[in-house]
Design brief:
heterodimer; A: about 900 residues; alpha+beta; 28 helices; 25 strands; B: about 100 residues; three-stranded antiparallel sheet
Chain lengths: ~900, ~100
């Protein structure tokens, strides 16, 4: 017969039984009374059928079974036997820990540190690498980059596609359900008219209308874009981010439908995004449609837009790649002049921060080692205790405890320790994360990870805690499981050899961590020693953008910057003020094709060089040397000959043996005026070299400096520019001065991204600094834990051999020889651990190499120095136990035995 | 004996007799089966406890005719519903098995 029971009834039964287990006072008397009545009635019934009362009772017992057996069955049904056993084990374990609080505190603190460090590190790694972004099928999002075999441009160059090609891909590809283009720029926002809001310069993003549908993001207020809003004439609409809506418009609930002026054009606000929306840039203020007009459709040679695509359901990236390749080949045939060699390639958007992966893997590995060392320490302590409790186990086994029951008892104790450590670890991690969150480098594309302990992190911590419990419990449980009857072995000798083996592993792991940490610190130090070719101290920088509507001509742009610089130079605290189109460490810069008349290029195309437009004070503001010739002067204006400076790298590449001064060059910036707002307006593209300047590192501290050409800001205008001010005053003060003077020249203009160059350089080493800091913390934890563990194991060994030492001393052994005996043992363990650790360090060398700069992972000085430090710490750890061994009083020690 | 069968028999007994103590249930089952079903206490009382934990029966302390304290069990509304489904299941299964066994080849 099928047994159908209502799920609610089953649930009810279980709840009652859990309650029955936990209830303090069992109702055994009631149960027994009920059973007694039953057996009495059965006996009476049997008696009625005849026979002696004894016979009747016997018959009744045969029929109804014994009261005691029934009681046992009832007790099992009343509660949950396994739960009751578990609670009993935990209660007993708690009493054992409470009886020895010193041991319990050391063990719990050790585990707290191990689990806490892992929880904190996992939270960071989870936020940076693992956590999926809150978008519709984010895993299907792909960047599309242009690649060109003939120009050796690969996916790593992240070359942006051109607008016309994007339009064709979007029309012809069948592998994507969305394909959008975007481009971000700065805009001056004013209005809505008449309510006195100050104009503000903000980052805005032009996107294809399908952008928000692709991400599955809906407006919190109003709506997002409609497909037809990328057409010219319908494109004057804007969607605000929640943050900008609050900050600039005071969270006006009736904002939708109002009109604002963006760079002098009127836009109507159609929606506000949810406040937690974050994609592409942390400081995006608004989104506007990417207009697809006649010009957009025909631009094939200007690689100036970023393209994102969303794979259609069930389409593999390889299929989509083949699809794009087919379209690209068609386009090569159709437009040979512009598309020769060009194709497109996919690159998944998520997971983010691939560049952080090696560092995070090393750090996760390191923190895992710390937990392993913590486990080894506590397991060592438990083993020592298992030795002490050997007699207890033997007695319990003799009294009938099954082997499984003893193992479970030991596991319950280690589970209790781990649970306490896990709880402490979560608290420790929560505290650590507050500090750590400020040190994590800025990440772009999707929201800054919140770095808080959430359900995912807790799940991780629980898993780590369970693994810890098992790791801790295995050895003592095994020990307990081997207990047989009353065969109490005197003192099993292998336990110290297990302790020594564990200690060897600890030392090896600690050494590996110390080596890795030292390598990272040395590499960071080397990185900070790199001379960037300029002096960042007391240098303040900020970005300015002049809207083309208000600054239509070259002379209007040059005039604005000349006037601002003239005003700034009048302030005594301004030592130097200068302007440049893209400052060092901006993250991107402009390039130009260089043509040297009379010199054919070895390849078909002219080489690409860096392209900077500067004012005369730029070199002195940065403290960069003029090596040869002259620098710019205010006389290098539109009425005079077009001049250029070049850097040393350029001279080395193009005129290694000749004098570059006086040579003619031609430079044409990449991009196009109609597409790129940073497009500089050149007086001419033919220049004469008048000077050579020192190299300036502009992107990464560990890079080769590229050739750069510098042009005069009065002959070439860039609406997009950075001011650099060298000052004797505070940065905040100078920023205020600059802001005021810019407003004095143009009341509509604001500045953006004001910071000191020292902070900019600091960001460049933020990631390596965090890595080396964390690794140092972990290495220190590892070595301290190992020292504590080593101390514990050696102390135990000395205690166990007290009688031996007593006899030796009684027989006349000098204290020095006893001391040497103990330290020699510690020394041999340390040497074994160090050998293994060195071998391990060589094994992980390749993984570390990608994080290092200017130091090889097999650096001899680092390896030997770290080994020395670990050896000294190991010897210090056995110093006191060895000293104690020499102080053994033979009379007392022998009497105790 | 199948556990479900015991549940069914106990519920049916309680539905027929009204509130009775454990021994009366056992006696009734023995009588109905003409002595072929003799319930062990270790089977009957845990079974009653399980039914009570599931909310299908309710036990109340009372006094027997001989003035002894005893727990009297009665069927609850949920127990009656469960009894109805189990009875229907049993009938269907029994008729299937019956016709299968009686079927001529």
């Amino acid at each position: 017969m099928t047994r159908r029971s209502l799920p609610t009834a089953t649930l009810r039964e279980w709840i009652t039984r859990v309650w029955g287990t936990l209830r303090a006072r069992p109702d055994d008397d009631d149960l027994e009374q009920e059973l007694r009545l039953h057996s009495d009635l059965a006996a009476a019934e049997a008696g009625r059928l005849g026979g002696s009362p004894e016979d009747a009772a016997r018959v009744a017992r045969i029929q109804t079974g014994g009261v005691m057996q029934a009681m046992e069955a009832l007790r099992d049904q009343r509660g949950l036997p396994w739960l009751a056993d578990l609670l009993g084990d935990l209660r007993f374990g708690w009493r054992m820990l409470a009886r020895n609080p010193g041991f319990a505190i050391v063990a719990v603190v050790t585990l707290t540190v191990g689990i806490g460090a892992n929880t904190a590190m996992f939270t960071v790694a989870d936020g940076l690498l693992l956590r999926p972004p809150p978008f519709d099928h984010a895993e299907r999002l792909q960047w599309i980059y242009d690649v060109n075999d003939k120009l050796h441009l690969t996916v790593n160059d992240a070359t942006p596609p051109s607008p016309a090609n994007f339009v064709d891909w979007r029309r012809h590809s069948r592998s994507f359900d969305y394909m959008v283009a975007w481009r971000n720029w700065w805009f001056s926002v004013a209005g809505p008219g008449g309510d006195g809001l100050m104009p503000e310069q903000v980052r805005g993003v032009n996107v294809s209308p399908a952008f928000f549908d692709m991400l599955g993001v809906h407006a919190a207020l109003g709506r997002t874009f409609r497909p037809d809003e990328e057409e010219a004439g319908r494109d004057r609409v804007a969607v605000l981010t929640g943050g900008f809506w609050q900050r600039h418009f005071g969270g006006d609930p009736n904002i939708v439908g109002k009109t604002v002026s963006i760079d002098g054009q009127l836009f109507s606000i159609i929606g506000v995004l949810p406040s937690d929306f974050y994609f592409l840039w942390p400081d995006s203020a608004m989104f506007m449609p990417m207009t697809v007009d006649g010009d957009f459709r025909t631009r094939r040679d200007t690689h100036s837009i970023v393209v994102l695509a969303h794979l259609a359901p069930g389409v593999a990236p390889a299929e989509a790649q083949a699809d794009l390749g087919r379209i690209a080949r068609d386009m090569e045939r159709a437009y040979p002049a512009t598309n020769d060699g060009w194709s497109a390639t996919l690159s998944p958007v998520f997971p983010l921060n691939k560049n952080l992966r090696p560092a995070l893997l090393v750090l996760m590995g390191a923190v895992g080692c710390v937990l392993l060392i913590a486990c080894i320490n506590v397991a060592g302590l438990l083993l020592v205790r298992a030795g002490v409790r050997h007699r207890e186990m033997a007695v319990r086994a003799a009294l009938g405890a099954s082997r499984r029951r003893l193992v479970r008892q030991m596991l319950a104790e280690s589970a209790l320790l781990s649970a306490l450590g896990g709880a402490g670890g979560v608290l420790l991690a929560a505290g650590t994360l507050r500090v750590l969150a400020h040190m994590v480098p800025q990440v772009q594309i999707a929201r800054t990870p919140s770095m808080t302990i959430d359900a995912r992190v807790l799940l991780f911590t629980m898993a780590a805690t369970c693994l810890t419990a098992i790791a801790l419990g295995i050895a003592p449980a095994f020990q307990a499981g081997r207990t047989e009857g009353l065969r109490v072995a005197a003192q099993p000798g292998h336990r110290t050899s297990v302790g020594r083996a564990l200690l060897t592993v600890e030392i090896a792991l600690s050494l590996m961590l110390v080596i890795a940490a030292t390598l990272l610190v040395r590499s960071l130090w080397k990185l900070q020693q790199v001379d960037p070719g300029f002096r960042a101290d007391r240098l303040v920088t900020m970005q300015v953008w002049l809207p083309p509507g208000k600054y239509p001509t070259r002379s209007s742009v040059s005039g604005f910057y000349r006037e601002v610089l003239r005003r700034l130079h009048q302030f005594p605290e301004v030592r130097e003020a200068a302007v440049v189109n893209t400052r060092p460490f901006l993250g991107w810069s402009l390039g130009a094709r260089l043509h040297i008349p009379g010199r054919p290029s070895p390849t078909d195309d002219d080489p690409i060089v860096g392209y900077r437009i500067i004012s005369p004070g730029y070199l002195s503001a940065l403290g960069t040397r003029l090596i040869q010739g002259r620098t710019f002067a205010d006389s290098d204006g539109s009425g005079n000959a077009a001049v250029a400076l070049v850097n040393e790298a350029m001279v080395r590449r193009f005129w290694p043996a000749d004098d570059p001064i006086g040579r003619a060059i031609e430079a044409r910036p990449l991009g196009s005026k109609s597409i790129a707002p940073w497009w500089p307006d050149q007086m001419t593209d033919k220049f004469t070299i008048v000077g050579v300047v020192g190299n300036i590192i502009e992107n990464r501290l560990n890079e080769q400096v590229e050739p750069v050409v510098y042009l005069s800001y009065l002959q070439n205008a860039s609406r997009y520019a950075h001011l650099l001010v060298k000052t004797d005053s505070t940065p905040a003060n100078v920023t205020g001065v600059v802001q005021r003077e810019i407003r004095a020249v143009d009341p509509d203009l604001g500045i953006y991204d004001a910071q000191t160059m020292e902070a900019v350089l600091g960001q460049a080493v933020a990631a390596p600094r965090l890595n080396s800091f964390l690794l140092w913390v972990f290495a220190t934890l590892a070595i301290v834990l190992s020292a504590v563990g080593g101390y514990g194991v050696m102390s135990y060994a000395v205690t166990r051999r007290t009688r031996e030492f007593a006899i030796r001393i009684a027989m006349g052994a000098p204290p020095g020889s006893v001391f040497r005996m103990v330290t020699r043992e510690g020394f041999s363990v340390a040497i074994a651990g160090i050998s293994i650790g060195l071998a391990g360090a060589l094994l992980i060398a390749r993984m570390l190499a990608s994080l290092l700069y200017g130091v090889v992972p097999t650096d001899g000085l680092t390896l030997s120095g770290s080994a020395g430090v670990v050896l000294v710490v190991a010897l210090l750890a056995c110093w006191r136990p060895a000293w104690r061994a020499t102080r053994v009083d033979p009379m007392r020690a022998l009497r105790v035995e | 004996m199948l556990q479900g069968t015991l549940d069914l028999m106990v519920l049916q007994t309680l539905d027929t007799l009204g509130p009775v103590h454990g021994y009366a249930i056992a006696a009734r089952l023995e009588q109905v089966s003409r002595g072929s079903l003799r319930l062990n206490m270790g089977t009957l009382y845990p079974g009653l406890m399980r039914l009570e934990q599931r909310g299908l029966v309710r036990g109340k302390w009372g006094v027997t005719e001989n003035n002894r304290k005893a727990r009297f069990y009665s069927i609850t509304a949920a127990g009656r519903r469960q009894l109805a489904t189990e009875k229907a299941d049993w009938d269907r299964m029994a008729s299937i098995v019956y016709s299968l066994l009686r079927e001529q080849p």
